[in-house]
Amino acid sequence: MTDHPSLLETERAMRAHVESLGLDFEAGLAVSSIYRAANAVRSYAWNELLRPYDITWTGFVVLWVVWIFDGMETRHAAEAAAISKATLTGVAKTLESRGWIERVGRTDDRRLVELHLTPEGKRLMEEIYPKFNAIETKVVGQLSAGRTREMTQSLRQIVTTIEETGLG
User: Which InterPro entries match (predicted)?
Assistant: First the structure.
């Protein structure tokens, strides 16, 4: 076995370890596949696009969230980026030091801070997001439009289930 087991090797190892436990193996495979797919896309996007810009995946997600919502309170930005507030603080400082983001205190409540893209941050996102979308197109390129829509609906249902049941 190599240092990086293939998808099939991982599934075989998983089956060998959990099959005798009487668990829902198909559910385990599904969630494991979601995890592996997300990590594969993240790694590919970082290597192909983000690394030359010296942007981490988390930094890109924060920029994207702040960009699409045209600014966002820090606690909501952390939640939307699926990171802790402490992690957001470090990421925001890095993005701010590069001139891409600014922290702005709220006038109605001085305890609250919003993140906004600077003009340079907006230019960066307008340059980088079409390239990111090309990666998105490439990674689903082997799927038909119907299968892509079906996958999207299934993944959205998983997210909705977690959100509606309070698991998230």
Answer: HTH_MarR-typ, MarR/SlyA-like, Tscrpt_reg_MarR-type_CS, WH-like_DNA-bd_sf, WH_DNA-bd_sf
